[in-house]
Write a structure and sequence with these properties.
Blueprint: E1 5-15, E2 18-25, E3 28-33, E4 45-49, E5 52-57, H1 59-72, H2 74-79, H3 82-89, H4 98-104
Antiparallel strand pairs: 1-2, 1-4, 2-3, 4-5
Length: about 100
């Protein structure tokens, strides 16, 4: 599933001529392209879809949406470890996790 998720801009920089932001989605931080929203500022909330921020969002609805996404497990679905999720769905341990703990533990 692909969601448009609200997040808070925590930092902005230019990379190779493109304005990029670090965006916090309730504890998960990702890099986001600001090409469609060049006037975005640190501290603002933006909607993010497939790595791009197409619009701003007021803080109250952004926080409410993040809380709802968290309750529904959608943040983990959207930003979680896909390999770990696939292994769990297959009923297997993710390679290198449990075995490595047994060897080093």
């Amino acid at each position: 599933m692909c969601l448009a998720v609200p997040g808070r801009v925590t930092g902005i920089e230019e990379r190779d001529g493109t304005r990029m932001a670090r965006v916090d989605f309730g504890g998960v931080v990702k890099d986001v392209c600001l090409a469609y929203l060049p006037e975005a500022e640190v501290g603002e909330y933006v909607i993010v879809h497939v790595g791009f921020a197409p619009q701003r969002l007021d803080e109250e609805p952004a926080r409410a949406s993040l809380e709802l996404f968290e309750q529904l497990g959608l943040l983990d679905e959207e930003f979680g470890d896909a390999w770990e999720r696939a292994a769990a769905e297959a009923g297997e341990d993710r390679p290198g996790t449990a075995e490595a703990e047994e060897v080093t533990g």
